[in-house]
Amino acid sequence: MSRITRRRALGASAGALAGLAVAGVASAAGPSATPAPRATAAERAAFDEVYQGRRIQGAPSHHGGHHDHGSGYQVHIDGKELHVMRNADGTWISVVNHYETFATPLAVARAAVAELQGAALVPLALA
C-alpha cells in the first residue's frame, strides 16, 4: 500500500485546479469570445512631462515591428526607450515592472521612474 506524499497531493491539486480554470475560461468565453478592449483616448494620448526629475514621453507609434512589441505605443525616459507591452486585458507592462500591470502607458512610465530610483534606463540588447 503506497502512501500519498505531500508532493503528490500538491501536484494532483494543482492539476485539478488548472483543469477547472481552463474549463471555466472556456465555458465563460464560449464561441463568441470578445476581443481585447480597444484603446481609450487616455491610452492613445501623447504625453511629455517631468516626473520625479525625469523626463517621460510617450506617443502612439505607427511603424509596428519588434520595437513596440505590437503595442503601437512608444515610451521614453530621459530619451531612452522603455519597452512597453499591452496585455490582452488592456493593461500595460514594461520591462522594468514586468509583473505589475497599469491602466495606461503614462502610469507605466511613472512606475518605471519610481522603480529605477534615479538609476539610468539601460537599453535592451537586440539579437
TrEMBL record:
Keywords: Copper, Signal
Signal peptide residues on this chain, from the entry's feature table: 1-28
Tagged with keyword Signal: yes
Alphabetical list of InterPro entries matching this protein: GriE/MELC1_sf, MelC1, TAT_signal
Similarity comment: Belongs to the melC1 family.
Name recorded for this polypeptide: Tyrosinase cofactor
The keyword Ligase is annotated on this UniProt entry: no
